[in-house]
Design a protein that fits this description.
- Residues 74-87 have low confidence and may be disordered.
- It is built from three helices and no strands.
- The protein has a domain at 12-64.
- The termini are far apart.
- It is mainly α.
- It is elongated.
- The chain has helices spanning 12-31, 37-55, 59-64.
Length: 87
């Protein structure tokens, strides 16, 4: 069954950034004295970022046709020809 599982589209650096940001969002929510709408949204975004970082997949990036990894699968990439050309 080809195509049943979404291919990774996040590079190693971006995965680390998302994991770190997710931990910060959840930590922010956890240290607040009250838990309201802002804290709930922060925790939700933190969980999503952590899941993105662990899996290496982002559905928003897929929808936009972007990739930050150098995967073998085809598709639109947000990286140019390896950065060898200057603009």
């Amino acid at each position: 069954m080809t195509g049943s599982i979404m291919q990774q589209n996040l590079g190693t650096f971006e995965r680390g950034v998302r994991l770190s940001a997710g931990i910060l969002f959840i930590t922010y929510s956890a240290i607040q004295e009250t838990f309201g709408l802002i804290e709930g949204l922060s925790a939700f975004v933190g969980v999503l970022l952590i899941l993105n970082g662990i899996s290496g997949r982002c559905y928003l990036w897929r929808w936009l046709g972007l990739k930050s990894c150098q995967c073998d699968s085809g598709g639109v990439s947000d990286q140019s020809d390896g950065g060898s050309s200057s603009k």
